[in-house]
Amino acid sequence: MIEEDLEVAIKVVVVGNGAVGKSSMIRRYCKGVYTQDYKKTIGVDFLEREIEVDDDNVRLMVWDTAGQEEFDSITKAYYRGAQVCVLAFSTTDKDSFDAIERWKNKVEAECGAIVMVVVQNKIDLIDESAVSAEDVEALTKRLKLHLFRTSVKENFNIDEVFLYLSRKFLSQQRKEATERAQNQQPTSSLAQIFTSSIDNLDKAGHKDNANGKLKTNEEKSFKIKPTKERVQRKHRPFCALL
């Protein structure tokens, strides 16, 4: 029998303010193409890519979400079921940096605590930076999230972002599976038989009237009443005197 490779499917949501490069990042990663033309995402978009992560076949389903508040009611519904998340901001946009924690809270409100990473995009425009490296590192340290500095234009660190997310998710899944297995303590069939026997003995036991202790088999006594068939009368000899 040929063993089929099992594929792990991971839903990824990429969130952040508008114009930070979310759509460009996803297209670069999933299709290998880049365009400088900016086109606002209306609602959500979806692309996917299959990769191999440490001998595991992984299919990443990457959801691109609109960054404008007017689309919040639409995009929130697509957060549900996400297993990993990219929180993206632009090096040249201070507002997008300030909004990172708000985006994190939005996703967690729908998905709970999932694997996340902070991405500082447009690092090729570092000379025009609106945020300091110290502020970025302080934020990620406070949120306890890993930071990637990327450039979609230069295709810098893009693959590494999604590889990191995939590995972290798979590692978390293995850890949870191990903990579930350790918490389960199945009773062996022999132990079940022994326990059942003890229970039956307790139910069928007889207590000594004097001290209330359970009698063992050796201490138990049985009286058998003789039946009529078992009784044989002894006949005395009859002697006649002549």
TrEMBL record:
* Protein's UniProt keywords contain GTP-binding: yes
Q: Which InterPro entries match?
A: P-loop_NTPase, Rab, Small_GTP-bd, Small_GTPase
Keywords of the record: GTP-binding, Nucleotide-binding
Q: Which Pfam families match?
A: Ras
Citing just one GO molecular function, the answer is: GTPase activity
Record-given protein name: Ras-related protein Rab-23
- Say which species the protein is native to: Amphimedon queenslandica
